Amino acid sequence: GIQVEQSPPDLILQEGANSTLRCNFSDSVNNLQWFHQNPWGQLINLFYIPSGTKQNGRLSATTVATERYSLLYISSSQTTDSGVYFCAPYSGNTPLVFGKGTRLSVIA
Amino acid sequence: DTGVSQNPRHKITKRGQNVTFRCDPISEHNRLYWYRQTLGQGPEFLTYFQNEAQLEKSRLLSDRFSAERPKGSFSTLEIQRTEQGDSAMYLCASSLGSEGYTFGSGTRLTVV
Fold it and tell me: Mind telling me how many Å the CA of A79 is from chain B's nearest CA?
């Protein structure tokens, strides 16, 4: 099955700082999502991004499927951005596969 | 569209008891997925349905686990003879075809 590697595993930011989270995956995929898991365990969909670049407010994501990686950019971080960020690639009928995530802590 | 709904939110049970969780997907979504997440790990796939057909089951889904989606709408996940190792967050998601998944809030199971 698809192997997913996320980096860094842990990240501490001062409020207002920018960051880039990376996701590498082992196989060709035609779908990919980024999720934020809040402290209560809810998985919030951030981006459905099989390829290209999307932006939503302070967040943006880029997927280069041919090179098997995706990036999530967080700008002007806020304490509410804290939590775990998961990358989850998948293909066709193969269920979504999660990495171990990046645990982000934003301190005031 | 009320999102994916899971009940109960929390369940505490004694070892050896049976438990059942329910998931109500987004109404127009034809696919429904179950995942399990333990502390510090990413969610792991258990099984998924397309309409009422169960199309794939993970090796994680032991004989004590059974899932149903009888009319292609809501789904139930039953765990028989629970063990302490079953303690986890059980997550349900739905999608329309292979487009983006939407997850519910999960059911946190504690086996004592």
Answer: 20
